[in-house]
Design goal:
The complex is a heterodimer of chains A (291) and B (392). Chain A is mostly helical. Chain A has eleven helices and two strands; from the N terminus they run ααααββααααααα. Chain A has helices at 5-36, 43-59, 64-90, 94-116, 140-162, 164-174, 176-181, 186-208, 220-233, 238-259, 261-278, and strands at 130-133, 136-139. Chain A has a two-stranded antiparallel ribbon with strand order 1-2. Chain A is globular, with a radius of gyration of 19 Å. The N and C termini of chain A lie far apart (41 Å). Chain B has 392 residues and is an alpha/beta fold. In chain B, the strands form three sheets. Chain B has a seven-stranded mixed sheet, sandwiched between helices. Chain B has a six-stranded mixed sheet with strand order 2-3-1-4-5-6, with helices on both faces. A three-stranded antiparallel sheet of chain B has the order 12-13-14, covered by helices on one side. In chain B, a hairpin with a 2-residue loop joins strand 12 (346-349) and strand 13. The chains are: A mainly alpha (291), B alpha/beta (392). Chains A and B meet through helix 1, helix 10 and helix 11 of A and helix 2, strand 8, helix 7, helix 8 and helix 9 of B.
């Protein structure tokens, strides 16, 4: 299929918007995967819980920003508690830890099914306006997600590089034992990292759900995209996640527009496979270092 | 005294003889009916429609004293298994029902993949299945024990597209997008045939993967052909809502139609009332129909909610059809019940006359066709604009 110039511009716009959405989804995953080496299969469910708790708080009368903030705090606390009392016990054995996370994912998913039902839901908050520049169309709701994604990316990077907690997290990412010897307490830093990861997933869920819809199984899509983005960008690398997200977004947009949705679904895996063959640590990967 | 004792004794003897005589059963017997439906994963809403539709019909019969079949009265119980919306789940559920629970009648399932897999067990073992699985392969002369109780796109696409063409004479072209699975392929083929028969030119057709969240690329491609109508049949309610919303965000001003599949409230919730305004949809039920309101009262009394999936009444009707065939046959012998079912050319459902049809399309008249409604979103509200009765 030949694309006209306006169509190419729209495809690029679509790809950039979606790519930055993927970055937002993957940001929290990067933290836990990069720092703790934990393959958190429940990451998608934190995203789902963020969206549904936001819906619940709105149903109770909270305006959208407050509902989002409450949902993020609740999910971050849940993340910290889970790390402290469950994940931490199994962290030394990667496989057991993966199975625990898989179990958590199932528990959360089915609990959501019981609590919020099987039908798709939507947030009672919507930005319907569309920004048009020439023939290009930018839906405002997506621009909000893009802006939030960029802001969180910058903010999180600053947090890691300019704060004591960020330094502690980076130190733990490099070597837990050496960092502990220098006074960094794993019992406080690791739950903090898990809380940040869960909170970021909840922010993503709460921000993206007005664009898409909510369902109890909505977590599998961001989990898959997070895997691709984090592995392609390099474990624990935030600039890597940004570049990888944009590459995947653009590639999917072009593939989907030119060849259809089936091709776009495999393009991310193909690109990741090729990059890993050429550079096994991913685009920006430096062993397991974060930052 | 002796005389009195003799009278009482004689009376007791008469009662005992009456109870022992053929033609009366003191204790209701147990009749187990299997249910296969989706209770986890995508499609739970449809799965609950299967289960609850069947349960409501069975409750009604049990509360009226049980099912009279010949000289016996049966109290009906159900055994339900989750097929997880998959072929693997369908065949596992069928194996358990047929070999462990020894059931001879199954209601469900709601997934084409699941029922096609389950038929590998039910057909050779002569088990009657009252299903909803879309897709042409579900019914065939080689599968004589399967009946489909829900009309599919094959039954309603032609009358629906004809209605759209007649009521929107300025709409000359259509783009059709459907999910990329067996049901989606079948549906798209039939919908295209319907539009062509109605004189609307199909200028674009495409597929998307189930679970897609971002439809912008698909829609950029489809809407680039400048169609007058966008048909999104085959999409589940969540997908349909996002499709409508994103099509409007991309500036599409034409008519959006969903030629099949229920769930309009959910679609409007996801799309937003602004984007959904004017959306034309198929619906097996009408909220304005008093019969449906009454049905929802019963539903609410049992399940505590009025949010019934619109397929629920079809499974209610389908289960009642099966039970009435058992009663009419006077036996639970599968061959006799099947023969009786095949002899029922038409029956009264909740919303009017239903017929058993499908000989021309599937080679076997095991397809229930029921009346349906065409709705439109007017001022943000789903509004019934036409009722389409079954073809004579």
């Amino acid at each position: 299929m030949l694309l006209s110039l306006p169509m190419i511009m729209q495809v690029v716009t679509n790809g950039l918007c979606m790519g930055l959405t993927y970055v937002l989804m993957a940001l929290g995953f990067t933290v836990v995967f990069g720092i703790m080496g934990v393959v958190n299969y429940a990451h998608g469910e934190f995203y789902m819980l963020g969206a549904f708790l936001c819906l619940t708080f709105m149903t109770l009368g909270a305006p959208y920003p407050l509902a989002l903030a409450l949902a993020v705090i609740a999910v971050a606390c849940l993340g910290a508690l889970l790390e402290r009392y469950l994940v931490d016990r199994f962290r030394s054995d990667l496989r057991t830890c993966m199975i625990v996370c898989l179990g958590l994912s199932t528990v959360f998913k089915n609990s959501a099914l019981v609590l919020w039902g099987a039908q798709d839901r939507s947030l009672p908050f919507r930005i319907d306006s569309v920004l048009s520049i020439g023939s290009l169309i930018f839906p405002a709701d997506r621009l909000v997600v893009v802006a939030a994604s960029v802001a969180l990316l910058v903010g999180f990077n600053l947090f890691l590089k300019r704060t004591r907690q960020g330094l502690a997290i980076r130190a733990m990412a490099q070597d837990v034992e050496v960092a502990s010897a220098f006074g960094v307490r794993p019992s406080s830093v690791l739950p903090l990292a898990f809380a940040i990861s869960a909170g970021l997933a909840a922010v993503a869920g709460g921000l993206i759900s007005p664009v898409f819809s909510l369902s109890y199984d909505m977590g599998s899509f961001p989990l898959m995209k997070s895997f691709i983005v984090v592995i392609l960008g390099g474990l624990g690398s935030i600039p890597g996640a940004l570049v990888a997200g944009v590459i995947i977004g653009l590639a999917e947009s072009f593939a989907s527009t030119m060849f259809g949705g089936s091709v776009s679904d495999i393009i991310g895996f193909v690109i990741t496979g090729v990059v890993l063959i050429l550079k096994p640590s991913g685009l920006f990967g430096k062993s397991s270092r974060l930052g | 005294m002796l005389r009195r004792t003799a009278v009482v004794g004689l009376m007791s003897l008469c009662i005992l003889s009456a109870l022992a005589a053929p033609g009366y059963s003191a204790e209701p017997k147990d009749l187990k009916i299997g249910i296969i439906c989706t209770l986890s994963g995508p499609g739970v809403s449809w799965g609950l429609a299967v289960k609850r539709g069947a349960e409501l019909a069975i409750d009604e019969v049990n509360q009226a004293g049980g099912l009279k079949v010949g000289n016996d009265v049966y109290k009906i119980t159900t055994i339900a298994y989750d097929d997880q919306f998959s072929g693997k789940g369908g065949v596992a559920a069928a194996n358990r029902l047929v070999f462990e629970d020894k059931v001879k009648f199954i209601i469900g399932t709601n997934s084409a993949a699941s029922v096609i897999a389950a038929q590998e067990v039910t057909e050779p073992n002569h088990v009657i299945v009252m299903t909803d699985g879309y897709g042409a392969k579900v019914l065939s002369p080689n599968k004589p024990y399967t009946f489909r109780v829900t009309p599919t796109t094959t039954e309603f696409a032609i009358p629906m597209t004809a209605w759209v063409a007649k009521n929107h004479p300025n709409a000359k072209t259509v783009a059709v997008v459907s999910p990329n699975d067996e049901a989606g392929w079948d549906i798209q083929q039939i919908v295209i045939k319907g539009y062509e028969a109605a004189g609307v030119k199909v200028i674009h057709h495409d597929f998307y993967e189930r679970g897609t969240k971002d439809f912008f690329p698909l829609l950029t491609r489809a809407l680039g052909t400048r169609p007058d109508i966008l048909d999104i049949d085959g999409s589940n309610p969540g997908e349909a809502g996002v499709l409508i919303r994103q099509a409007r965000q991309l500036g599409f001003k034409g008519l959006i139609v969903k030629t099949g599949g229920p769930g309009v409230e959910e679609i409007v919730r996801v799309a937003g009332t602004g984007a959904a305004e004017g959306f034309v949809f198929y619906s097996p039920v009408s909220l304005e129909d008093p019969a449906y309101k009454k049905f929802l009262d019963t539903y609410e009394a049992k399940y505590g909610t009025r949010e019934a999936d619109p397929l629920t009444p079809l499974f209610y009707d389908g289960t009642k059809l099966l039970l009435s065939a058992m009663k009419k046959a006077g036996t639970l012998d599968v061959e006799a019940v099947k023969k009786t079912l095949e002899g029922i050319k038409e029956f009264q459902g909740l919303f009017g006359k239903n017929v058993l049809t499908g000989k021309d399309v599937y080679g076997i008249a095991h397809q229930v066709d029921a009346p349906f409604y065409i709705g439109r979103i007017i001022n943000g509200q789903p509004t019934t604009v036409a009722k389409i009765e079954v073809a004579k």
